[in-house]
Amino acid sequence: MAEKVLMKGNEAVAEAAIMAGCRCFFGYPITPQNEIPEYMSRRMPEVGGVFLQAESEVAGSNMVYGAACAGARVMTTSSSPGISLMQEAISYMAGAELPCVVVNIVRGGPGLGGIQGAQSDYFQATKGGGHGDYRLLVLGPSTVQELVDLTMEGFDLADLYRNPVMVLGDAILGQMMEPVEMRERPKRDLPPKTWATMGAAGRQKNIITSLYLDPAKLEKHNLHLAEKYGRMAAEQVRYSAYMTEDADVVLVAYGTTARIARAALDRARERELKVGLFRPISLWPFPYDALAAATTGAAHVLVVEMSLGQMVEDVRLSLGETKPVHFYGRTGGMTPSPREILDEIVKIVERGA
Amino acid sequence: MQKVFGRPEALADVPTHYCPGCTHGIIHRLIAEVIDELGVRERTVGISPVGCAVLAYDYFNCDFVEASHGRAPAVATGIKRASPGSVVFTYQGDGDLASIGAGEIVHAASRGEKITVIFVNNAIYGMTGGQMAPTSLPGQKTTTSPRGRDPETAGHPVRVCELLSSLSGVGYIARVSVTSPANVAKARRALKKAFEVQLEGKGFSLVEFLSTCPTNWGMTPIEALKWVDDKMAVYYPLGDYTRVPEVG
Description:
The complex is a heterodimer of chains A (353) and B (248).
Chain A: E1 4-8, H1 9-19, E2 24-27, H2 35-46, E3 50-53, H3 57-69, E4 74-78, H4 80-85, H5 87-96, E5 100-106, H6 122-126, E6 137-139, H7 144-161, E7 164-170, H8 171-175, E8 177-181, E9 207-208, H9 215-235, E10 239-242, E11 249-252, H10 255-270, E12 275-280, E13 282-284, H11 288-294, E14 300-305, H12 311-319, E15 325-329, H13 338-352
Parallel strand pairs in A: 2-3, 2-4, 4-5, 5-7, 6-7, 11-12, 11-14, 14-15
Antiparallel strand pairs in A: 1-8, 6-13, 10-12
Helix pairs in contact in A: 1-2, 1-7, 3-5, 10-13, 11-12
Chain B: H1 24-38, E1 44-48, H2 56-59, E2 63-66, H3 72-82, E3 87-93, H4 94-100, H5 102-111, E4 116-121, E5 124-125, E6 131-132, H6 151-154, H7 160-164, E7 170-177, H8 181-199, E8 204-210, H9 214-217, H10 221-235, E9 239-240
Parallel strand pairs in B: 1-2, 1-3, 3-4, 4-8, 7-8
Antiparallel strand pairs in B: 5-6, 7-9
Helix pairs in contact in B: 1-8, 4-5
């Protein structure tokens, strides 16, 4: 077992990427993720990698597109307004089937919003963000350790599916320090990048494009992508369920909010309220079936988010009319407290009784 | 019998979609000739733009990547940084490079990215049907300047070589045309120089071609070539714009 080190979330993401073999980083300064490009600017030259501060997120994400074309393991990171600017390149990379990792250290919006942690980019991350029929693999870590593990895993998944992967963190996770174990991962068998464009030495030329002017060909391409998204949805569902077996009320929360929900759960259990917690880890694919299974015996579901209610729509898709789905959210960079969540639980139980 | 003329290996043996009298075809051929002459076809990666040359990847016989509108220099940067042994060139029109991609071209040049940019300036948006370009001349009639471009409201045409020549990262920058055999020969020399600058690691290189659009200019191919010489080359003088680096 590797020893534990105390690391800030943002720096841990950067080192995790290096350990996963990422050798190209393009980024643009934006709070609250600046420690990532700063760390990369020091670290990349030490490992023979590329660090480049782009002139904008638009350019930086298109540099990622280029480096991915050349077969490199490549990452960019930003925060909400910057991620909005990257949607063009993200759509093109999804269309051209280019692997990369994009980390969003989410801050409050809309517009310039604020710089405190939020979860209001869930729709953008999981429902499209850019134009066209496409999906990203979206991973929602809730600890710095998970931020490290999922970032490393993200590079493998990107290569495995030839698809951009988004790690959806938030300002709290990026800024907090926690002990982490920087574990070397077993090497995965991944398909060779025979499609990369570095010069057609000894082979036919490779073309990387997302342009299909013939609608029949574009439909065929979209159906090919859909088949891939289907495999991703079948193979990459991740979640954790805690004390859901006997729960009357199941909390559903991801990322930072899941930790706060867990604290509320502990207080509720002290009062002998049967509360469980379901935490989606893959936000796309969303664990629809697992959530339905984990809440079979529950009378109520309470979704908690740092937004006005985005993931709650997926919870409702999962559960339909089978039971009441309640929502509690704080927004704009405010965090729900365990006390507030407990109050909501008590209200639901009292109303239900 | 000795063969004295043939298709360059770097040019694919396919018909192009370009209109009669458009000079994209000549420019494509010159690039392919230079790639062959320098012996770099198997190291070369081209980046096609959004615009008339969007399908350029079908016309060259080397690796190619399609970029989004204006971002070719950023995509080229990513490829070149990840694969420094590759020879990387972008092929961009005036709308792509001087309007929506103005930020990317300025910063790629200022960083001295070791890439070669082929800038094809025909003073109009060709593929979308003849709208005003950043390089449309004052008074030029287009579908979005039907009374002629009025600099008072529509702004002034952008002189890209002059603009970029002040940047220290630029290793070579020149403006050429292909309106006569003599000009074609000069253009070929400029292109070769631009690729050599990249190969020697001497920074960013760009060749601007004054090009024709008979279809959207509403001219015959011969009238269009004359318009390049008589109108465009006056506003956009041909020549080498590389600034001698300051000492110290």
